[in-house]
C-alpha cells in the first residue's frame, strides 16, 4: 500500500487506562475500512506471488486463493493490525514502554464486518519525583594503605598461587570440605541428594537455605562425620513445593582440602616478574592505593543510593521485577569482577545471591529508574571509549585480552550492565560534587553501616542517610 493510500485510511482510536503500578491498559478500535484495505492489500500481494496447480504465477483466481490461504492470511493481517495499533498508541500517547505488550491474540477476532476491538496491557516507565540532591550528607571513610592491609594483600596473593591437597586432619577455618548433601522435607521425603558438594568453612547456603553457623558446624569435623542442620526454606526458594517449609540437611564429610601457601621470598617475587620482595610489595602497595580509592567511592555511592531509595516514592510493575532478577545476577557478577574477585568465588557468590534475588531485583530496578532520571537531568552521556576503558581495566585484572573478555560479556548479557556501571558512576560523581562530605574514621562508618537496614528494606518511610538543610 502506497504512503498516500495509507494516509487516506481512517486511523485506529485508543483509550488509555491505569492497570496497576507503572502499567497501562490500552483499548483499541480498528475501523472496518482500515481492516478491509489491509485484507485486500494482503490478497493482492499473495495473488501476485502465489503458484497454484493449473495456473501460472500471478494468474490464480482470487476465490481459489481465498479458499487455499484465507485462514492464514487473515491471521497474519490480524497480527499486523494489532502490532500497528500498539505502536501508534505508544507513539501518540508518549508512553515509555519497558516490556513487551501482553495480549492473547487467540481472543482477538478479525470481524467479517465492522470494527475490530481489543485491549492489551504494557508496563511503562513509572512516574515519580526525584528528591532534592543538593547538600546530601555523605560520610567519607579514611582508608589507609597501612601495613595490615598490605599483609592481607600479600596473603591473598599467596592464596592465588596456593594449591589444595587432601588432609586427614580435622577441618580448619581455611579448609574446604567435600561432602554428600541430603535434604529431607517435613514429610520425611527426600527433596534432593547432591554428592561431592564443595563447601567453604564459613556461613553459606545449602539447598537454597542460608546457614550463618555453617562454618562453626564444619570446623573440627573429620572424614565420614555426619552433620545435621535444620532450616526453613525462604518464600522465594527455587523449589516452589518447599517454600516456607522446614528442611533437614544431612552433610556427610567425604574429604577435606587444605591449601598449601607459597613462601614470600626471592623466588616467589622473581616468578611474578619482580627483582625482589621489596619490589613486589611496592607494586602491591600501589595497587592497594587504587583499590582503596575505589572502595572509598563505593562507600559514598552506597550512601547516595540509600538516600535516593529512602526519599523516592516509586512503585514498580510486579512482573518486570521478576524479569529483572536475571539482570541482578549479571550486574552483581560484573561488580565482583570489577573488584578482582576470582571467577570461582564469583560463581559461589552468585549462587548465594540467587536465593535473595527477588528482593534485590526490586532494589536494583528502583535504582535503575532513579539513576536514569538523574542521568537525563544532569545531561550525562556515556561514550563508547569510556565503556572500552572500563573493559580494558577488567581485562587487565583477569589477565585476558580485552577482545576475549568483550565476547564473554556479550555472551553473558553483561555489556549493558557495563554501560550502566559507567553511567551510574558518573551520576554519583555529579551528586557528590554538590554533597556535604565529612571525613570519618572507617571503623566508625563500618559500625554505622552494620546498624542500617538492608537496601531491600529501604523505602520512603525507612531511616537512611540524612539530608542536610544547611
Task: Explain what the structure shows.
The protein is an alpha+beta fold and 470 residues long. It folds into three domains: 3-123, 2-Layer Sandwich (Alpha-Beta Plaits), CATH 3.30.70.1050; 137-154 and 270-457, Trigger factor, domain 2; 163-260, Chitinase A, domain 3. It has helices at residues 3-8, 32-49, 62-92, 147-160, 214-218, 266-271, 277-311, 318-338, 343-355, 357-378, 384-398, 402-411, 415-432, 442-450; strands spanning 13-18, 23-30, 116-123, 137-142, 163-167, 176-184, 190-200, 204-206, 209-211, 226-232, 246-260, 436-441. The strands form four sheets. Strands 5, 6, 7, 10 and 11 form a five-stranded antiparallel beta sheet that branches. Mean pLDDT is 84; it is low at 459-470.
Helix content: 40-55%
Largest sheet: 5 strands, antiparallel
> What's the average pLDDT?
84
- Uncertain stretches of 5 or more adjacent residues: 459-470
Domain tally: 3
Report the total helices: 14
Integer-rounded radius of gyration: 30 Å
Structural class: alpha+beta
State the assembly state of the protein chains: single chain
Assign the CATH class of the largest domain: Mainly Alpha
> Could you name the CATH topology of the largest domain?
Trigger factor, domain 2
Give the overall shape, derived from the CA principal axes.
extended
Q: What share of residues are in beta strands?
A: 15-25%
- Distance, first to last CA: 65 Å
Give a count of the beta strands, DSSP E runs of length 2 or more.
12
SSE series: HEEHHEEHEEEEEHEEHHHHHHHHEH
Amino acid at each position: 500500500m502506497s504512503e498516500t493510500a495509507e494516509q487516506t485510511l481512517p486511523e485506529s482510536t485508543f483509550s488509555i487506562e491505569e492497570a496497576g503500578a507503572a502499567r497501562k491498559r490500552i483499548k483499541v478500535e480498528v475501523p472496518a475500512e482500515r481492516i478491509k484495505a489491509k485484507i485486500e492489500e494482503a490478497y493482492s500481494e499473495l495473488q501476485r506471488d502465489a503458484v497454484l496447480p493449473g495456473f501460472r504465477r500471478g494468474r490464480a483466481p482470487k476465490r481459489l486463493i481465498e479458499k487455499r490461504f484465507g485462514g492464514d492470511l487473515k491471521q497474519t493481517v490480524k497480527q499486523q493490525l494489532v502490532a500497528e495499533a500498539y505502536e501508534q498508541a505508544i507513539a501518540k500517547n508518549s508512553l515509555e514502554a519497558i516490556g513487551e505488550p501482553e495480549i492473547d491474540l487467540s481472543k482477538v477476532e478479525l470481524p467479517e464486518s465492522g470494527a475490530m476491538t481489543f485491549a492489551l496491557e504494557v508496563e511503562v516507565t513509572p512516574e515519580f519525583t526525584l528528591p532534592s540532591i543538593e547538600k546530601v550528607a555523605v560520610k567519607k571513610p579514611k582508608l589507609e594503605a597501612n601495613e595490615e592491609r598490605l599483609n592481607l594483600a600479600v596473603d591473598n596473593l599467596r592464596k592465588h598461587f596456593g594449591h589444595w591437597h587432601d588432609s586427614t586432619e580435622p577441618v580448619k577455618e581455611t579448609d574446604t570440605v567435600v561432602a554428600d548433601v541430603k535434604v529431607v522435607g517435613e514429610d520425611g521425603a527426600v527433596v534432593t541428594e547432591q554428592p561431592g558438594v564443595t563447601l567453604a568453612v564459613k556461613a553459606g547456603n545449602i539447598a537454597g537455605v542460608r546457614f550463618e553457623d555453617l562454618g562453626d558446624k564444619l570446623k573440627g569435623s573429620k572424614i565420614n562425620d555426619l552433620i545435621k542442620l535444620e532450616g526453613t526454606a525462604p518464600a522465594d526458594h527455587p523449589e516452589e513445593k518447599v517454600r516456607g517449609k522446614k528442611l533437614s540437611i544431612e552433610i556427610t564429610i567425604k574429604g577435606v582440602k587444605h591449601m598449601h601457601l607459597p613462601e614470600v621470598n626471592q623466588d616467589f617475587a622473581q616468578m611474578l616478574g619482580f627483582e625482589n620482595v621489596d619490589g613486589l610489595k611496592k607494586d602491591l602497595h600501589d595497587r592497594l592505593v587504587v583499590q582503596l580509592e575505589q572502595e572509598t567511592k563505593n562507600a559514598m555511592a552506597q550512601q547516595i543510593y540509600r538516600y535516593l531509595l529512602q526519599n523516592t516514592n516509586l512503585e514498580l510493575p510486579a512482573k518486570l521485577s521478576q524479569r529483572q532478577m536475571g539482570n541482578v545476577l549479571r550486574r552483581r557478577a560484573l561488580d565482583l569482577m570489577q573488584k578482582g574477585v576470582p571467577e570461582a568465588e564469583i560463581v559461589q557468590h552468585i549462587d548465594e545471591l540467587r536465593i535473595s534475588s527477588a528482593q534485590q531485583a526490586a532494589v536494583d530496578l528502583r535504582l535503575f529508574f532513579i539513576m536514569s532520571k538523574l542521568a537525563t537531568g544532569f545531561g550525562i552521556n556515556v561514550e563508547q571509549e569510556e565503556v572500552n576503558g572500563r573493559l580494558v581495566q577488567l581485562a587487565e585484572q583477569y589477565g585476558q585480552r580485552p577482545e576475549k573478555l568483550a565476547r564473554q560479556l556479550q555472551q553473558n548479557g553483561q555489556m549493558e550492565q557495563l554501560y550502566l556501571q559507567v553511567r551510574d558512576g558518573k551520576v554519583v560523581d555529579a551528586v557528590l560534587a554538590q554533597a556535604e562530605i565529612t571525613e570519618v574514621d572507617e571503623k566508625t562508618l563500618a559500625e554505622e553501616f552494620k546498624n542500617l537496614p538492608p537496601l531491600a528494606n529501604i523505602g520512603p518511610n525507612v531511616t537512611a542517610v540524612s539530608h542536610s538543610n544547611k
